[in-house]
Amino acid sequence: MAFRHGILISPDQIRIQTADRTQYQINNDQQLFIQGELQQLSAEDIRVLQKYSHGMRKFVPQVVGIAVDSMELGLQAIESMLVGVGNKAQQEEWQALVRETTYQIMSRFVRSGEHFYLAPQSLNEMDAFLHGELKENLNNLAKNTVGAVWQALRDALQQTDDNFELNDSRDWQPVEQLVDKINLGLDAKADELEAKSALFCNRLVELDQIETQLQQRVPGLAAYDVVIAK
Q1: Roughly what angle, to the nearest 10 degrees, separates helices 134-159 and 175-217?
Q2: pLDDT tens digits, residue range 87-100?
Q3: pTM of the model
Q4: What is the 3-state composition of the chain as percent helix, strand, coil, each rounded to the nearest 5?
Q5: Taking Cα atoms as reference points, which of 120, 109, 96, 174 lies closest to residue 142?
């Protein structure tokens, strides 16, 4: 099962998007706009729309949450190595690297307060993301940032830079140990997604059935098949 379009969920709206353009949106779980035009719905239409909207609101935040939590686990391990190390310019450089990597990796999964975004993808692609792409990128980020930290330490010892700050009580981790720690957390999240995959698949099948009912009642939605078998 997969999502053909991007889904943006906020407390008041659900937007179905293609290339950042909204194709249709649901307001307050009972109003439907297609290409910006308000649709006239019967009481039964609204009932099916609400059922569809509630299903989306239950499913999408769960999936996005697993991916974002996985990313945050890795970043916390990396950022713990950066606190109190280096001068201000070095800190800003490392943080910029972390932010850039985060943006590049997580463009398909966004969580900000009560707002969630899920890009078009299948459950298998989400699983591959956690097992492969995310792990590889975080491992590379860990190696780059830890390498930069140790280089800063060497420079400080050689130059006795008064602007370099270091907490002597810090428990320094070799890069291999940091990578192992990151992978352990990511594996746990990947296992969580795998354990829930059957449940998620069933929910997507149910959503697909509700979507079909809604399309039959509102023919204008037939052009925007969001949930598909894949």
Answers
A1: 140
A2: 677 667 767 777 77
A3: 0.72
A4: 60, 15, 25
A5: 174
